[in-house]
Fold these 2 entries.
Entry 1:
Amino acid sequence: MRQLHHFPLSPFCRRVRLILGEKRLTFDSHPERPWEPRDELFPLDPAKQLPVLIEAGGGAKLSDAQAICEYLEELHPDPPLLPKRAGDRAEVRRLCAWFDRFFFGEIGSVVVREKYLKRFRQVPSPEPDLAALRRALDATRRHLAFIEKLVDARDCLAGPLSLADFTAAAHVSCVDYFGDVPWDAFPKARDWYARLKSRPSFRPILADSVPGLTPPPHYANLDF
Amino acid sequence: MRQLHHFPLSPFCRRVRLILGEKRLTFDSHPERPWEPRDELFPLDPAKQLPVLIEAGGGAKLSDAQAICEYLEELHPDPPLLPKRAGDRAEVRRLCAWFDRFFFGEIGSVVVREKYLKRFRQVPSPEPDLAALRRALDATRRHLAFIEKLVDARDCLAGPLSLADFTAAAHVSCVDYFGDVPWDAFPKARDWYARLKSRPSFRPILADSVPGLTPPPHYANLDF
């Protein structure tokens, strides 16, 4: 059985869990604490990043969410999560990178650090930085407006349902776990996210429960 | 003719220039000022990132360096810059993402901001932050040690020459333009970079000249 080492509040790990689910690939789930990395998982990664996917029987040991998703798409192309035309594939990849860099940089990394890591690791300071959280909330509004612009012009973010949607939804879901998504102001983004949430691959994500931190009632509600 | 809009000191733009060169694909070069973005280049990119590649005849308009490189690899597979096996391709992609995130985040973005953008844009302050530059120099040593560890275990960064090498070399070259790479302490990394530098695709990079900012003599020297 393949093994997935992951952190439940990491959008990068959630993306891989979603893609494994979409492709109906079973795996043993190993939740990890990223602040206590186990060196043997990261022989050639000085940054010791999760997720790490280890193929069955001592096979390939893979890291980096996008690299893992491309790998899964190449070996298990059904159902396809990248379109056929090279230009369309480039647009999906552009959007994955966009959410990884900007949504995570401006929102996800801030919320998880300020509301979770500081509380449980108590470094560098246990007090959340309220100004940073306000900036992240402002950024959330900008990003939801961007999602609305994309789904207005297309069916899903890059056209048909693709890796771009699961990437973005994984990022959104981590922030939603903290109740920090202003859904009421963005009904089209909510409709898009509701479609993603209702897929079987999303069930394990909605069942995530981080010790000491209960998500808001709407988090796992498909009709939020 | 395809059009490439790029910023000469951006490692993301340099990577695409290198890959176009490796694949012997001609293009019209349009240097841009990222601090004065032309909106028409970025209809669906709120971050207005370079490079932007526009195919001939009003074809695809592509952005994000990795997405563009994957696109070029799919349409122009010769010479190949991704290996054949899915697991090996995943390792190349992991390393591309690694340098994009960590080398650029810890070093390249800092050096260009402190030594170039502050001087020419004069915002937010024209004084370079010396402590930030010292941290970037420390990080450079760690990253060169990582490159040495990889080329010690393999021929190039991910095995045979691949997109990972051009990605890393593009990042290194931007920092080298400022003379901020401590080559003497890292002879194996220097050998690896010398191999990259001597390729014809690197010539336009070594000929880059940013107004007001002369690179050190070793920058364009193949025998540095």
Entry 2:
Amino acid sequence: MIFYSNWRSLAAYRVRVALALKGISHTVMPIDMLGGEHLLPAFRAVNPQAVLPALVLDDGQVLFQSMAILEYLDEIATQPPLLPADAAGRARVRGLAQIHAADSHPLLVPRVRQFLQKDAGMDDAGVQRWIARALTTGLQAIETNLVTSPQTGTYCHGDQITLADICLSSHLLAMMFFKIDDAAFPTAVAIHGRLMALPAFADSHPLRQPGAPS
Amino acid sequence: MIFYSNWRSLAAYRVRVALALKGISHTVMPIDMLGGEHLLPAFRAVNPQAVLPALVLDDGQVLFQSMAILEYLDEIATQPPLLPADAAGRARVRGLAQIHAADSHPLLVPRVRQFLQKDAGMDDAGVQRWIARALTTGLQAIETNLVTSPQTGTYCHGDQITLADICLSSHLLAMMFFKIDDAAFPTAVAIHGRLMALPAFADSHPLRQPGAPS
């Protein structure tokens, strides 16, 4: 399979981690997102939404949307599983993951920040407040759940790495990129520290990918 | 189970449709979102994120995030299935669903619109442009996929109702709420028309819920 990726895209990071955890063989095709390569016809022919990541299967089918891709990878390569065995546990994991992927992260993506600056005329400080609010409200919800749930363990859900961990890590990398203070979220930060000690996460770090600033 | 809902919440609408399609017995607990009831301690004790919907299971576990709840309902009540039988098909359905749930809809929710108006000082016309852009770019991606994929059928994916249809319907209801022209998206509009002819969708319509304006 071909993985269309970009060093900075956090949605691509989430897929990169899953590919690494499961040891799935693939070819990386870097797209220069900051240079606008994802908007050109060549990439639009792959993913008409013109967003990253995209995963092209060997039969040519193009998968899009990081969370859909993660579920797919978990289905075709079942070890290690990224979801717990019970339905209620899966709901908790997917719920935690979606707080990041469907509440916070959509507010930060480049096309949204550009719109705020160019169309809405928001200044840099306004955009920074916007980003800080999106990230801290989401992380507050995640932290509260982690602190109060008996299901929290070494990672977000017991001692098994799940989709919730991949999204938590993506969330905390966003905090780092945008220099948002994470001191109020010690449980989340501690789990992220444990994740980053693992090669699948460390080697997938945005700043360790081709094209990233040194 | 107890379903914390609000007539206007599109995330609640998505769960309402799934409950109806599967005929799952539940108690509805309406929360006055426009009056800020979701921000009060009583509801925060249910869902600390203070957003709708939430689904409280009989054992007390609280499920949150609409897409996580939909997957849960599909797992505990398998008929009719809301996902196709093959992994690649499921990836397409989840991808289409996430374009709405993780790209477009997060930009429209009341807390985001309020932030744009109060903190960013965006005027009504600016907010309307913001909403229109979020909805039309997402629907353009969905429409292109629907038009070009041989897997599109009576509904988004063949002739079976899936998560993609529930989210498409949510998307088109948002277009209606905000008076965004949908003429450029005939395939999506036609599918939505077929969905709205079904009782599970029609009876779940936001304007047919308790508390909705007449």
